[in-house]
Amino acid sequence: MDAHQQKCPSFKIAILSRGDAAARRDTTPQSSRFVRVFEALAAAGIDARPAIYDEAFADEVRAQLLTADAVLVWVDPIHQGKTREALDPLLREVARRGPWVSAHPDIILKMGVKEVLYRTRHLGWGADTHRYESAATFRTEFPQRLRTSGPRVLKQNRGNGGQGVWKVEALLGSDATVRVLQAPRGSRSEELPLDDFIARCEPYFGWGGCIVDQAFQPRLPDGMIRCYMSGSKVAGFGHQLIKALIPPPPAGPDSPEAQPGPRIMHGPEASPFKALRRLMEDEWTPQMMETLGIDEPSLPVIWDADFLYGPRDASGADTYVLCEINASSCFGIPDEAPAAIARTIKDRLASVRREGSGR
């Protein structure tokens, strides 16, 4: 062991993702889809191992996680009919018993749900945003807002892949019929009675608790900017021309013209996003932390904020509207992000170890 290795504390990390028993048995750092993260952690002197999770063998996973110094979690809130309803209590238990969990389920409930759009609507990334806490409130308030405010975008509180995200617009001359388009790829526009659509959305008030309502952003065809964060620092950007909530072309939703463009990745220094980086690091992330009651060590080691282009300001510069924060399963990531993850983890665990030795 060289002098550098003697000075550096060794840490054990578990990278948790969903899979079946065969995946749990066979997945290695080299075969994992997180191979670049494993490589960056190894280069930083951190011992990281896969931890494949399913409810069928949750006790086995719990025992593995309790041997780690930290657990990095990549599990969608909804995946092939499964939720995190059983996983989140397990992760809370693990965190109480010692390992540091990122992202902790309580942090996800603060920043990784659509309600964050409402709670932070006063920040510079905010827009015309409302929240419906119950089916009764939704049924009472949404029709009037739709009639007076133009097209709206409704979002269930927890979801991924566009599930439970709808563009809704009232048909000209009709208060009772709406045109709706759901965000997942391949969706088709549909016209139906407003009351029927409202009834369709009522299950969203179950697990997840509310519906968030934003004004539709006319610059949606200009694309979406994904700002990747490691803790409080920008780790890169992705820009993509998206097709979600845009009516499909005449050839249909499965035609090549209806497919989204590739997400073009950029490092944190990318000049087109220089202003957005400054806003995220110097203003919006600190303001979000204050609003939500999150301290910096609790921020996920990797998360992202998705922005649409808002109206240009008086000088002609772009503005940005937050449309989602992803904190539970942020992947794929720019080439620069794995090294940023490794730095964040090493700094945080070294700080925890110093605090522990000083007691």
Structural description of this entry:
With 359 residues, the protein is an alpha+beta fold. The protein has three domains: 119 residues, 3-Layer(aba) Sandwich (Rossmann fold), CATH 3.40.50; 125 residues, D-amino Acid Aminotransferase, Chain A, domain 1; 87 residues. Helices cover 31% and strands 26% of the residues. It has eleven helices and 17 strands. A six-stranded antiparallel sheet has the order 7-12-8-9-10-11. The chain has a five-stranded antiparallel sheet with strand order 15-14-13-16-17. β13 and β14 form a beta hairpin. α3 crosses α11. The longest helix is centred in the C-terminal third of the chain and has 21 residues. 37% of the residues are buried. The N terminus is likely disordered.
